[in-house]
Design brief:
Strand order of the largest sheet: 5-6-7-4-8
CATH architecture of the largest domain: 3-Layer(aba) Sandwich
Number of strands: 8
CATH superfamily of the largest domain: P-loop containing nucleotide triphosphate hydrolases
Number of domains: 2
Number of helices: 10
CATH topology of the largest domain: Rossmann fold
Amino acid sequence: MSKFNCNQKGRCPKYNTNPIEGHCFNGYIYYEDKDKNEVVKKCDRLKKYIESQQLNIRLKKASIPRSDFVLNYDIDKSYFGEESIGSVSVIKSYILNFKELGFEKHMYFHGVPSTQKTTLAFYIGRELTKKGFKVKYILMDFLIKILMSEKFEDGQAEIIKQVIDADCLIIDESFDKQKINWYKSDYQLSFIDSFLRTRLDQFNRSTIFISNKMVENVKEFSNNLFNFIERNTLDHQLEFKDILNNNFNAVKDM
């Protein structure tokens, strides 16, 4: 965690190098209350610093990148393109109404690479984290490997707990055999199938799938699993078509 360093001399009207009444000294303002008691309070700059550090800690736990691009992304200004604005509007509504409706809503993002799917998922994760919800981002291949583990390695047990407890679980590179080390025997199927049915049906916790493949591609894994995913995401299968210009310094789909 970075250390707070208030270097606002000449810019902050309350800045002072010593703790003088009414002035800010390294993030704290000293003054007397109406009863002549000495009081110290945090300045606005220190409050914002603490909030940003707390958000960074929660985003790290959620596996959401903490790059300047992700931290400063504004969906109204930063989204590139017009073809999928309808899908962007659904995302904004999802975030706004998450407490009331989001827990019961599952979404499937699909589109060719570089159509900003992962970027938008990070935005969702950031905004929900700000609201105090538990979020976890994970690749489907890694999720399957952990679910299959007979003995958890360092940190894996905590990740399993996070993906189970998350109010919003974002699973990237979903249902794409080019992205998943899938056995011809379909050995992994029972692990991911059981996990998803427990999470979506039993716990009813919001899950967002991100894929370069349409939902019909889930049939390559299992018809039963396809029917399950189709049923749970039927009204929220969002296609993204706006390809991000390669000159943009942004998070691109993996």
